[in-house]
Amino acid sequence: MPSIAGAVGGRLFWVHRGVTWCRPRRCLLPLQLPLFSSLAAAAGGGGAPPHLPVVIVGAGPVGLVLSFLLTKFGIKCAVLDKNVEFTRHPRAHFINNRTMEIFRKLDGLAGDIENSQPPVDLWRKFVYCTSLSGSILGSVDHMKQEDFDKVISPISVAHFSQHKLVDLLLKKLEGIGFQTYLPDEIGSSTQDLVLENKILMGHECSSIQLTDDGILVGASFNNAGRMQERKIHCGLLLGADGARSTVRELAGINMKGQKDLQKLVSVHFLSRDLGKYLSRERPGMLFFIFNPDAVGVLVAHDLEHGEFVLQIPFYPPQQMFEDFSTKVCEEIIVKLVGWEPTDVQVLDIKPWAMHAEVAEKYIGCNNRIILVGDAAHRFPPAGGFGMNTGVQDAHNLAWKLCLLQNGVASTSIIQTYESERQPVAHFNTELSVENFKAAMSIPATLGLDPTVANSVHQVINSSLGSIIPRNLQKTLLEGLFSIGRAQLSDYVLNEKNPLGSSRLARLKSILDEGKSLQLQFPAEDLGFRYELGALDAEDCAEATCEAERQKHSKRSREYVPSAKVGSRLPHMLMRALSTSNEVCSSTTTCLIHIFLANILHV
Known about the structure:
Elements: E1 4-8, E2 11-16, E3 19-24, H1 40-43, E4 51-57, H2 61-72, E5 77-81, E6 94-95, H3 97-103, H4 109-116, E7 125-129, E8 136-141, H5 145-149, E9 158-159, H6 162-175, E10 179-181, H7 183-186, E11 198-201, E12 204-211, E13 214-223, E14 226-239, H8 246-250, E15 255-270, H9 272-281, E16 286-290, E17 295-302, E18 307-313, H10 326-337, E19 345-359, E20 363-364, E21 369-371, E22 377-378, H11 385-405, H12 413-445, H13 450-464, H14 470-485, H15 498-512, H16 522-525, H17 542-553, E23 573-574, E24 585-586, H18 587-600
Parallel strand pairs: 4-5, 4-14, 5-11, 7-16, 10-11, 14-21
Antiparallel strand pairs: 1-2, 2-3, 6-9, 7-8, 12-13, 13-14, 15-18, 15-19, 16-17, 17-18, 19-22, 20-21, 23-24
Helix pairs in contact: 2-6, 2-11, 11-12, 13-14
InterPro entries: FAD-bd (IPR002938), RIFMO-like (IPR050641)
GO biological process, one term: ubiquinone biosynthetic process
Protein name: FAD-binding domain-containing protein
């Protein structure tokens, strides 16, 4: 937890590593319109829309974590989501140390995850192979003894699919009074509707209007086959509605960075036969499969229950998402497995594009709209930074809104959310792109250079796109790719073939030296530092800051505990001397709880 800033009696105070400091307030902006006004008059009949201090758009992990934290802090809120049901597509699955530390504060959520996740020996490795039953080209174990000894953090990383995390979060929210509703369960009338502690599914944020004292939100929903719009007034609108955020679009906030790094098809399927086989023969989290018939990455979300997601690259317009029917996907699965499981059940097929972008700003409309999670940043999945960064965004924002509502801080504290979290997003974007490139070094070493594939695709698009039909372009493209994949045959990739031997030796070197795709980044997950924000950074002279930035840029994977202002408080077990309780707490969580309890009585 970084230092906490607020305003009391015209003074600025902050709590940092258990010590309270005080200095004249000179950096806080003048108090603007109250963000948490009750608007009693507006809510008191006459057809006026109901008012809430906060409306959250998006009922994914980030939006649900936000709603839980805000409610615990005494801030009334509701959640809108355009979907009528929660997705069962697994999506994110790796939870890093810092996020698990935050989950320890959510009524035992971290413990529930640890008890529900697959055994660590089933997911600690990345496996590189010619098929799931063929030759293993190499593997990397991403867990160290210090992870189990909990040296740098009071809790270990976890492998737990996003849809299961959402289920646990919904149970936690039910425990504090939240309920989930569909449009037909609450009717079409908004007058006298109590929205507090409600998750409104099937409600899409379709319009926003800045008022004198908040935001008027239009939420579209389907009422018996007819689209209607429900009006809701709020002090703050928090956009946690994902990579294609409607809130971000309505607020006119642009994304900056790299688009369309790769296009993929995501195939969610079940096969207990395959799960049992891999658990017994070659357990792992990710399987990178390269053979003459197909190339893909298999994410083993749960080997015990046989739940998988297969990621397949594709190249439109020659290859279209519509080409990947259930039958085609089943055929690709068999090619990558090396034998035919009898119980493959394809549940869902989705296209997606990989981007590396950060919103140009996180806050808009006079501090009334705030972006959180994927709405504010879109990363390649390499390293699992997306959901983790989003949850940490939510945590950072929630305690600041708590201080704001309780009159401890002025509205300027909202700007520190952007000044602290946006640099982290830029850094994680760069790191995830580097990690993605490291992942691409493996097929390049085996003779399948992705840059060559992209170049071939571009040439076909630019020179043949307007001359020959798409089907012929597709045949040509796939023919060239098939020739390239021929280099993955057993005839080439073996120790007796000079070319294959050289490539396998290079592959081994990349894996042994840690230059392939990495899973854990403790230096970044725990060692990031807020140089600007809700803290006093005068101890950081310019030379010191520059030295820190240069050291950080070397990408050391080792976490070095730091006592510098703006850093996460290093983990150490503590026990209160005033009680006989032998239970120890970590410094990473207990001090901020003591502060909030004493100052805010929460």
